[in-house]
Structure formats: structure tokens, C-alpha cells
Design a protein that fits this description.
alpha/beta; 8-stranded mixed beta sheet; 13% strand; 8-stranded parallel beta sheet
Length: 595
């Protein structure tokens, strides 16, 4: 019943979303979920209905995930589709009214065990029965069928429980990490020297995992439909982070070609290095300031070497991820001060904690977000809303930041702002903390640091003129601005085609923000992923931006694009883009301008 293809040695080419350029060649490491995430539990008879309900919800979610994967198979080459589709169909079928599902329901109701315990017991029983039963003459086929039952069990368990972050530390060096889904907190645990590449089945270009992976700099492709069905532990693969492809069991010719591309890529990186000392200015000498985004502390030496003249966005979330407790003021202060000192007088813009939405982690602080499990956490208590809800979180962070500002030029930035009252409230909290530190004779800078806002909601862009009355600067966060403007989730692969920061609606909001900043005489930068797209540089300059911030690895390539641009031609391009009929038309305009 099962096709032998994906288990065999035939070359298969899969496609996903390119995230981090570079060629990774290596053996697959399938990262297991943590072993003991589920505690075996008996239940009372009064709990049967609730456990059955949870189980049905997990089964429905599992079917939905598999159907979504099935839809995305359409983008694969015919041969790959033919291999993977029957497997997905078989899994969806088994998650319906199958013997397996009936046995799990019976175990809950009759053996009085929790849904998770029933899934573990029944899938293992049935896997063993298939493996050793008389039904298969062919041992390989029996083993495959048993594996598939266990796969289904794992999917059900993942959907039944929120598993803690996993450890990648002991996985083999130089392998290609293959996982179904990587959360931002998982990505933060990855040591960039450990893997030749990273491939996931779920994920998209602008979700926070992608942001993290760019920071880490390991070649990566996300959102590869059918990935887990197509690869085996230790299979050799070639991952191309620029083309967004993964070749499983590559032929000798494919391996040779990959080795050649890897050498070409390394040469390209070396030639970019020569740009480091050149000015970031257009052909007609308009200076464009290039700053780096910082996601994780280990990037600091790389950022200091990246050619960036400051940090335009330090996401402070990493301090809160994968920790046993919330970081106290001293711990935060030490990290901020280290960053400020490492940048040696260049400005460091540190963003207040942007917790919630798809950054949600299971670590400490998870309990602070009451709506994290609701359908739309991105629309709930996220960013500044959460901070104003939990004053001690806000005040602790402000105190650490004010203290760090005594060691160099710090700017403080507020995430997820919609209106002026939020900025005013944070400013008041900052004054209060300042007075408290002053009274305690703690070392402080001469003046409170500039307090600015991220423009990442349509409301903030529409209110930009009002916000500019109190904000010391703006930073446009196109990742969220695109999501909230176009009503498309940045973290969901299924709608990825609809998510486009070059949509004229997003560009109009960017334009309004820049105009409001210009009128108020405050600086404005753009620090979403859009800033690292070389093709978008002339358009962003045409819209009036003179400051861009991006992951450190992109600074030099953006500098090269800036130096090839004549700012006088950019205004017309921006005007045409603002009046365009849709994102596709904007892409066409950009391509024409580059031709
Ligand atoms: C953004 O939304 O564009 C942004 C820079 O913030 P983050 O990606 O951290 O949400
Ligand atoms: Mg954002």
C-alpha cells in the first residue's frame, strides 16, 4: 500500500521558502520531540467527557494540518507529489473513524486514562501488533506501517500537549536539521556552528522563526511541503537556502553541482567583505544610514563587524526565552550594558519586551499572557499592551535600560503602539523609574534616553502625526504592519502568497509615517525584513527613508545596493508604486527600474 520512493534512495527535489542563503550538504538529523513531555495519568470517571473532548479537538487539528499539507503539495514536482500524497492520505484516513481512533476513545472511557496516555498506549500497542503480526510477509512494509502509526501518535500528542522547547545540543555536528516546525524559542537554542542547514515543514519568510534563523546565519528553507514524509534519519540531502530547495538522496551530479555552488557562495561573501569600509551613500551622494537588528547576544561580534553604524533594533525577547525565571533588573542591565559597550559609541536602539503573538514561548512569562491560547493572540495583549498590564515587567526593564544608558547612546523603543496614550503611559513610567533610581543615587546618563515608537500597526501609521508630537523617533516594523494591514498572519504558510509588504496599502502607511516624521523633524527608520531586500532599496529611498535596519548578515549586500542607486530616479518609482493596482504591479515596477 505504501510507495517505496521516499524510503528508498531515489533523488527527490522538494521546494519551500528560501530564508537564509547558502548551501548545506549533510546527513539528515530528525530532531525528536522531548521524550517525557507527557505524564501518564489516570482520570476520574467524571473527567471522561472532558478528555474525550480534548482528544477529538486534537484529532481535528491533526486532520486540518495534514489537509493543509496536502493542498501545498500542488507546488511540488509531479514525481514528489506522487510519492508523498498517498502517505498524507493514509494518515488523514487513519485520523478519521479508524480502528486506531476507536481504540483510543475506548481506552479513555474504559481504562480511565488521560487522552495523552491513551494515545501513547494504543499507538504503541497497534504499532507492535503490526510489526510482529502475521499480516505482512514483507518485514520492511510492516516496519513502515508501524512507523506510520507512531507518527500519527506523535502528531496527536503534539496537538494534545504544548511540549516544552527541545534541546539541539547533542545532535550531530555538520548535519542538516529537519523538523516539522521550529518555534522562535527553539531557533534561539541553535548553535550556528552545529548545523550545515535547517529545513522545516511549517513556517514562512516573515515569521519570528525566520527572523531568528537569519540572525543565526545557517542556510535555511522553511515551509517545505511533504518534508517529513520524504526524508529519513541520516539520508544525505542538499539544502539550497537561496533557491529554497532540498534535494533528498542527491545523485553524484547534484552533489558536484552543490559543492560548486557552495564555493561560489563563499567567494561572494568574501567580495562583500571589501565593501565594509566604503561609505553607505547613493551614486548622487545621499547618505543612507545602515543599522543592524540584534536578536541574540552571540551575534554581537558579528554585528560590530557587519559594517553597520549602530543597532536599529535590539529585540529584547531573547532575554526572556528558554529561561527558568523572568530576568531581573541586574541581569537585564548586564546584557544591555554589554551591548552598548560593544558598539563603542554607536547608537543602540533597544526595544521593550514584545511578548505575545507568535513570539509566545512556554517559558516564564507565559502565564502573564491571559489570551495566549485564544484563536488570535496577535490581536490580544501583545507588546506595549502587555507591559502596561504588568507594570512591574515594564518598570524592571526600564530601570535596566536607564542604567545601561549611562554607558553609551541608548534609545528606547516601544513595540505594538496604536495611539499616543500608550506612549504617554510609558513615558510616565519612565519618569517614575528615573526618579526612583536618582533617589537611590544609581548612576544614570545626563538626560533620559530618547523614547520612540515602532510603527507596526495601521493605527500607529494613521496616528503618526499625533504620535510624532511626543515620540523622539519612529521605526517602521513592516513585518507586523503588513500582517495587520493586509489581515494575513505572518506565521501561517498557507496564506503566505497574500503576505506582501510591497502591497500599495502598506506602502501608503509607510509614506504617511515618513511624512509625519519629516514634518515633526524626528528621525524615522525601517527595521522590518523588507529592509534587507536589495530589490526594495530604490523604492524605500524614493519613499524618503534615509535609515534602514536589518539583520547583520544583510548590511553589506544592502550597502552594495545603495551604492548602485541614484536617489533622483527613486521618487518617481515610489510615486508609481503608491498608485499601483497591487503588490504584483509594484514588483513589476521594481524589476523594470532595475533593468
Ligand atoms: C516588525 O514587526 O517589523 C518588527 C521589526 O518587529 P518583530 O519582527 O520583532 O515583530
Ligand atoms: Mg513587530
Amino acid at each position: 500500500m505504501k510507495p517505496a520512493g521516499p524510503r528508498g534512495r531515489r533523488q527527490t527535489r522538494l521546494a519551500g521558502t528560501p530564508i537564509v542563503p547558502g548551501i548545506g550538504i549533510g546527513a539528515v538529523t530528525l530532531a525528536d520531540e522531548p521524550a517525557l513531555a507527557v505524564i501518564r495519568q489516570k482520570i476520574a470517571a467524571t473527567d471522561i467527557a472532558a478528555e474525550l473532548h480534548q482528544f477529538e479537538a486534537a484529532a481535528a487539528q491533526s486532520r486540518k494540518q495534514l489537509s493543509r499539507l496536502n493542498e501545498r503539495l500542488a507546488g511540488l514536482p509531479d514525481a514528489a507529489q506522487a510519492e508523498i500524497a498517498p502517505l498524507l492520505d493514509a494518515h488523514i484516513h487513519m485520523l478519521g473513524n479508524s480502528r486506531l481512533m476507536r481504540a483510543i476513545r475506548t481506552a479513555i472511557a474504559e481504562r480511565l486514562v488521560s487522552a495523552a496516555t491513551a494515545v501513547i498506549d494504543v499507538t504503541e500497542d497497534q504499532a507492535q501488533a503490526v510489526r510482529h503480526g502475521p499480516r505482512y510477509g514483507d518485514d520492511g512494509a510492516a516496519a513502515r506501517q508501524a512507523d506510520e502509526i507512531r507518527d500519527i501518535g506523535r502528531r496527536l500528542l503534539r496537538n494534545l500537549t504544548r511540549l516544552p522547547f527541545r534541546s539541539f545540543a547533542d545532535l550531530p555536528q555538520g548535519s542538516v536539521l529537519v523538523v516539522e516546525r521550529l518555534r522562535p524559542a527553539d531557533a534561539a537554542l541553535i548553535n550556528p556552528a552545529q548545523f550545515a542547514g535547517i529545513a522545516t515543514e511549517e513556517g514562512s519568510a516573515e515569521d519570528h522563526t525566520a527572523v531568528m534563523l537569519r540572525a543565526i546565519g545557517v542556510p535555511a528553507v522553511l515551509g517545505i511541503a511533504g518534508l517529513l514524509a520524504a526524508v529519513r534519519q541520516d539520508a544525505v540531502v542538499v539544502l539550497d537556502g537561496e533557491a529554497g530547495t532540498l534535494i533528498v538522496n542527491p545523485s553524484p551530479a547534484s552533489l558536484d553541482e552543490a559543492a560548486r555552488l557552495r564555493a561560489v557562495f563563499a567567494r561572494g561573501q568574501r567580495s562583500l567583505g571589501r565593501l565594509r569600509r566604503l561609505a553607505s551613500e547613493t551614486l548622487d551622494h545621499v547618505p543612507i544610514e545602515l543599522h543592524a537588528n540584534l536578536e541574540l547576544p552571540f551575534e554581537l561580534p558579528m554585528v560590530a563587524q557587519s559594517g553597520a553604524t549602530g543597532i536599529g533594533l535590539m529585540r529584547s525577547e531573547f532575554l526572556f526565552m528558554n529561561q527558568d525565571t523572568l530576568p531581573d533588573e541586574d541581569r537585564q542591565f548586564a546584557t544591555y550594558r554589554e551591548t552598548v559597550l560593544a558598539m563603542d559609541g554607536d547608537p543602540v536602539t533597544i526595544r521593550l519586551l514584545d511578548w505575545g503573538g507568535d513570539k509566545q514561548s512556554d517559558g516564564p512569562g507565559a502565564e502573564l499572557i491571559p489570551n495566549a491560547r485564544e484563536a488570535n493572540p496577535a490581536l490580544g495583549l501583545r507588546g506595549v499592551r502587555l507591559l502596561l498590564h504588568h507594570r512591574s515587567l515594564l518598570e524592571t526593564q526600564l530601570a535596566a535600560l536607564l542604567r545601561a544608558a549611562a554607558f553609551g547612546p541608548v534609545r528606547i523603543m516601544i513595540p505594538m503602539v496604536c495611539c499616543l496614550t500608550e506612549l504617554t503611559a510609558v513615558r510616565q513610567a519612565m519618569r517614575l523609574v528615573w526618579r526612583r533610581l536618582e533617589a537611590a543615587q544609581i548612576r544614570l546618563p545626563a538626560e533620559p534616553p530618547p523614547l520612540g515608537v515602532m510603527i507596526e500597526t495601521p493605527a500607529a501609521a494613521l496616528n503618526a502625526a499625533t504620535l510624532a508630537r511626543e515620540a523622539a523617533f519612529f521605526a517602521i516594523g513592516t513585518n507586523d504592519l503588513t500582517m495587520y494591514t493586509l489581515a494575513v498572519d505572518r506565521a501561517v504558510a498557507g496564506t503566505v502568497a497574500l503576505y506582501d509588504p510591497l502591497d500599495p496599502a502598506v506602502l501608503k502607511l509607510i509614506g504617511m509615517t515618513i511624512e509625519a516624521a519629516r514634518q515633526a523633524g524626528i528621525p524615522v527608520s525601517l527595521c522590518g525584513e523588507l529592509a534587507s531586500r536589495t530589490g526594495a532599496v530604490p523604492l524605500l529611498i524614493g519613499l524618503g527613508l534615509r535609515q534602514l535596519s536589518m539583520h547583520g548578515g544583510a548590511v553589506l549586500k544592502i550597502k552594495r545596493a545603495v551604492r548602485a542607486t541614484d536617489s533622483r530616479a527613486c521618487a518617481d518609482l515610489a510615486a508609481a508604486a503608491l498608485a499601483a493596482t497591487g503588490a504584483a504591479a509594484v514588483h513589476a515596477l521594481i524589476e523594470d527600474a532595475a533593468a
